[in-house]
Amino acid sequence: MLGLGIIGWIIIGGLAGWVASMIMKTNAQQGILLNIVVGIVGGLIGGFILRLFGVDVEGGGLVFSFVTCLAGACLLIWLVGLVRGRTKV
């Protein structure tokens, strides 16, 4: 992610996880650590899916990285809700 290293992953992941938890209405159930984890894992999921479609995720820039993490985090929260049986589709 643009050479930001682990600190960049934590910051972008934390912000993306926090915004995703507000979008998916799970913010009250998640703390800062879980937001960071959800954002980072969401970034991995989003990057994987975009690579399947041939999108260059490495050269996308900071905003693209954030949007990728955000979309992946929302998908992750939705999938966890499906597994737990609490969906609002």
From TrEMBL:
What is the annotated localization of this protein?
Answer: Cell membrane
Q: Which residues cross the membrane?
A: 6-24, 31-50, 62-83
The topology of this chain with respect to the membrane is:
Multi-pass membrane protein
**Top-level division of the source organism's lineage:** Bacteria
Q: Which UniProt keywords apply?
A: Cell membrane, Membrane, Transmembrane, Transmembrane helix
Main location per the UniProt record? membrane
Entry keyword annotation includes Transmembrane helix: yes
Q: Which family does it belong to?
A: Belongs to the UPF0410 family.
Q: Write the protein's name.
A: GlsB/YeaQ/YmgE family stress response membrane protein
- Recorded source organism is Gordonia hankookensis
